[in-house]
């Protein structure tokens, strides 16, 4: 009489026997045991041995096959679309051509060190050098993939941990480059004739990220409430664009628009309609002349050209966002309001980013406080003087007060 215990263990009336009869073995293997628990443990160990044996066989595939057919499809479900596309680019253009032919379990640290050197020397477009940051990102992809392979027993260890990837210098945190209000106004005047001026104007007056601006649809403009709803972003990936969710949950927000900005958007919409483009609620707000969604890089390139020809201090496109925030903080807009407008996760991050403005604001705050006290003192003194005059007036018109004419009659000189 036998009772089923698991997929691989059976229990007889006389003894417990763990039996494994898998397709990967030539003959059944049996291990006697004295208890149900022992039988289950033995069966589990044999299953693990089978999985490892099968994994060793998989480990004989090439690095390219593992990355493209196994690892990337697994990771794609967990990554943002833009990150997945970047990983695919690294594998297809940097990793697979150099080390893709090696067996997964035969890859050595020297293979990776050579890859990193070659990428630093001539791995870029036109055999130009790649930056240390990009090469290090390639290393991170390899390290992550082999960590997964090690966890699944496809290889014995993570070979990427034994390499020497290029060091990436950590940038010291510094204050962002910004324009003054006058410089920003000069730039907007300098670019007012451009086709894509509305996108530049919107960025400057809202502090939106570049991807958020080009990711807008006409349905995101709630004109009756004078605000924009930011729900997505558009990113540039290897010459194309993809639509992705906002950077963080806090980035999904609504921001109010001023009348001039709304007028600029309305004029832009009418221009698109005159050019034969549709402007329905699901149509992109900013498009190229061919009617396709605008590539974020096109906006950056336009901005850089116009900054160069304007004579203004050089700043990045992203610094329009910093300029917007800095000007708001400088005129006393609360940090929490600025933080929400920018889509920051926490006001503390906003304060840390723009703390360079706080010393000057502290001096201004001290001056304003002193002026407030001086004004209060003046008002107090004015009120006291007013009360004093009122009291004197009452005494002069009381029941014992003498009329000026009677005083004249009593005057012997008159």
What does this structure look like?
This protein has helices at residues 36-58, 63-76, 81-99, 109-122, 132-151, 181-191, 197-206, 210-214, 259-274, 296-310, 319-330, 335-342, 347-353, 358-396, 404-410, and strands at residues 2-4, 9-12, 16-20, 29-33, 221-222, 227-230, 232-237, 240-245, 253-256. By secondary structure, the chain is of the alpha+beta class. It has a four-stranded antiparallel sheet with strand order 1-2-3-4, covered by helices on one side. It has a three-stranded antiparallel sheet with strand order 5-6-9, with no helix packed on it. Mean pLDDT is 82; it is low at 1-33.
Features:
single chain, 414 residues, alpha+beta, DNA polymerase, domain 1, hpI Integrase, Chain A, three-stranded antiparallel β-sheet, 9 strands, elongated
List the helices and strands and how they pair.
Elements: E1 2-4, E2 9-12, E3 16-20, E4 29-33, H1 36-58, H2 63-76, H3 81-99, H4 109-122, H5 132-151, H6 181-191, H7 197-206, H8 210-214, E5 221-222, E6 227-230, E7 232-237, E8 240-245, E9 253-256, H9 259-274, H10 296-310, H11 319-330, H12 335-342, H13 347-353, H14 358-396, H15 404-410
Antiparallel strand pairs: 1-2, 2-3, 3-4, 5-6, 6-9, 7-8
Q: Short summary of the structure?
A:
Helices cover 53% and strands 9% of the residues. The chain has helices at 36-58, 63-76, 81-99, 109-122, 132-151, 181-191, 197-206, 210-214, 259-274, 296-310, 319-330, 335-342, 347-353, 358-396, 404-410; strands spanning 2-4, 9-12, 16-20, 29-33, 221-222, 227-230, 232-237, 240-245, 253-256.
């Amino acid at each position: 009489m036998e009772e089923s215990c698991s997929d691989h263990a059976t229990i007889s009336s006389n003894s417990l026997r763990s039996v494994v009869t898998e397709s990967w073995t030539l003959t059944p293997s049996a291990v006697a045991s004295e208890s149900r628990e022992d039988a289950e443990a033995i069966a589990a160990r044999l299953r693990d041995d089978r999985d490892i044996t099968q994994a060793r066989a998989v480990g004989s595939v090439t690095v390219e096959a593992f990355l493209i057919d196994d690892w990337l499809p697994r990771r794609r479900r967990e990554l943002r679309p833009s990150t997945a596309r970047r990983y695919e680019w690294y594998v297809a253009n940097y990793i697979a051509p150099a080390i893709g032919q090696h067996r997964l379990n035969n890859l050595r640290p020297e293979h990776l060190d050579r890859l990193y050197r070659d990428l630093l020397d001539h791995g870029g477009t036109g055999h130009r050098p790649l930056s240390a940051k990009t090469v290090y990102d390639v290393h991170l992809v390899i390290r992550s993939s082999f960590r997964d392979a090690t966890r699944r027993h496809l290889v014995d260890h993570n070979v990427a941990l034994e390499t020497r990837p290029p060091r990436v210098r950590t940038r010291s945190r510094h204050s962002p480059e910004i324009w003054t209000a006058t410089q920003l106004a000069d730039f907007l005047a300098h670019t007012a004739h451009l086709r894509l001026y509305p996108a530049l104007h919107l960025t400057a007056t809202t502090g939106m990220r570049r991807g958020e601006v080009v990711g807008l649809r006409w349905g995101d403009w709630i004109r009756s409430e004078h605000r924009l709803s930011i729900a997505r972003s558009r990113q540039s990936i290897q010459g194309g664009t993809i639509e992705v969710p906002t950077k963080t949950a806090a980035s999904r927000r609504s921001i109010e628009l001023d009348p001039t900005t709304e007028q600029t958007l309305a004029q832009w919409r009418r221009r698109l309609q005159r050019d034969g483009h549709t402007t329905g609620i699901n149509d992109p707000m900013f498009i190229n002349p061919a009617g396709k969604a605008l590539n974020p890089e096109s906006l950056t390139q336009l901005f850089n050209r116009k900054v160069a020809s304007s004579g203004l201090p050089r700043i990045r496109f992203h610094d329009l966002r910093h300029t917007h925030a800095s000007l708001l903080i400088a005129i006393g807009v609360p940090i929490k309001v600025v933080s929400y407008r920018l889509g920051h996760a926490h006001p503390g991050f906003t304060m840390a980013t723009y703390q360079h403005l706080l010393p000057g604001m502290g001096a201004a705050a001290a001056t304003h406080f002193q002026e407030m006290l001086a004004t209060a003192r003046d008002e107090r003194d004015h009120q006291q003087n007013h009360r004093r005059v009122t009291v004197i007036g009452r005494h002069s018109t009381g029941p014992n007060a003498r009329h000026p004419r009677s005083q004249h009659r009593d005057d012997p000189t008159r």
